Structure prediction request, 422 residues.
Amino acid sequence: MPKKSPSTMMRRWYLSPRFWLNVVIVMIVMEALVLLLNNFGSHVVPNWFYAVGWSFGNSSDSPDGFGPDEPADSFLVHYEDYCRKSLLPNESSIRELLDGRTVYNESELCHCISQNLVGGFGVNYTATPSLESIISLHPELKPGGRWLPSNCIPRQRVAVIIPFRDRHEHLKALLYILHPMLQRQELDYTIFVVEQAEPEIFNKAMLMNAGFQEASRVAAFDCFIFHDVDMLPEDDRNFYVCSPTPRHVGAYLHNWKYQLPYGGLFGGVTAFTRAQFELVNGFSNQYYGWGGEDDDMLRRVKAKNFKISRFPPSVARFVMIKHEPDDGNPFNMRSSLGYRYRPNHYSQEGLSTLVYTKKSDEPLPLYRRLTVALPPPPKNFKGYSRRTHRSVRGDGRAVHGFAAKFTAVLSVVCLLLFSLNL
Prediction:
């Protein structure tokens, strides 16, 4: 009996019913996991799920010396020592605050740990008051959402950059929490909301790059906080300041039982100094739709031999607001590109190749609103809408089909496998 060639066996393997049965099983399991996590979160997911694989990398490599299991009281002692030595205002800020004077006494600086801090506070975003009520609560704000303490010199000037489109309820909830929290931390801060006017498909990373460029023209900020609009802080001891290396501010979520779901997580809320952000060449501009940009940024950080700074989960606690899938932010079927380590690429693409058009710059009562138009996605872009179950292309066409869903699910599988092994 003649031997079957390997190519013939491969073709028959791909056509076998068992292979397709396995594919269907994988799709069902993945969909079930996504539904379980999105709809029920930590109330249903058992502890062993976090203990096996998903908590990989939960140990901190923070260069600040803050341990991942450090209690809040111990952390505050270490933070105060770090703050006194490292968090000092820049000369430009000093000149502005002291009418040209550059010499000051240490006693004039704001306390590292303000007496106004309350620690952990409950977050109930469904009970957020109206925007008008929030504005009335903050007559102390300067136009464009800036505040600074009047009785001391703030140690850092901070730009909070929020990429945004059509999430007004989330933005309102975030502003309601951020303004009083940052004031209790005694920071000189300005909130920038960078809104995408066009194209239809969202590009969060490019908006953050644009926000950095525009904020840099406003003032000499010491620290840039890149903040997802659906991430709500729960503790004002999670100081919105920068570290000697890029910092993962929003590391521990209520939705994930305040553990890192995987070691390669670096998104939600991150902090960079100007020098750090320029050194890694900002975010990539390539990731239209959902997914890829945070993983790409992590590899940019690693390519420059930075370690990730994280405060311990005893203070660095967040709630992530659940929301319906957005057709304008489809799952990027090529998001797994963010997991590839491409050190030569990072210096050639990112902040240095950013292109956008500023449509407006409005100093509103609670924030500075920047509206920008971005270039359209490439025509070969392929996304997948979880709401309509349609594939979305760069030219705007939406096509329904099994292939789109199959590709999207396999992409998620690949992302998870990469996450657990990197």
